[in-house]
Amino acid sequence: MSTFRPEMTIADFNARGSEYLPGYLGIEMTALAPNTASSRMPVRQLHFAPNSFLHAASVVALADTTCGYATIAHLPAGAESFTTIELKSNHLGTVRDGSIACVATAQHIGRNTQVWDAVVTDESSGRKIALFRCTQMILWPKG
After folding, report:
1. Rounded to two decimals, what is the model's pTM?
2. In terms of Cα–Cα distance, which of 105, 96, 122 is closest to 40?
3. What is the mean pLDDT of residues 115-140?
4. Where in the chain are the domains?
5. For residue 30, is pLDDT > 90?
6. Which one of 16, 19, 81, 127 has the lowest number of neighbouring Cβ atoms within 10 Å?
């Protein structure tokens, strides 16, 4: 059974992603606790599609990153890593400025899979932007 690993701090996750997509997009983890994680992302021009609306992939990147970091913080002892095996998103709205926030909540934390739900909101109003669900496969050392 997996347990929350409090030795993984918000600063660790923010540093870990700084040279990868999360850092490029400006994703910042803001909270990490048993069965939950939170993040935010300031909205910039690079987050938009050519139609001047927030690109769905930007929203998915925020939600998937938040759920991924939450998965790492809840890996079972001895597990090596994880990979996303399924994700779904429903987009309900958009923003044109400010920041969006994400709260991920564990729905299932097992030995071989984890399922996380996330809600992405407009950080200033709290209005829902997207609903997200992903399934993570736990990776174990081979041998």
Report:
1. 0.96
2. 122
3. 98
4. 10-139
5. yes
6. 19
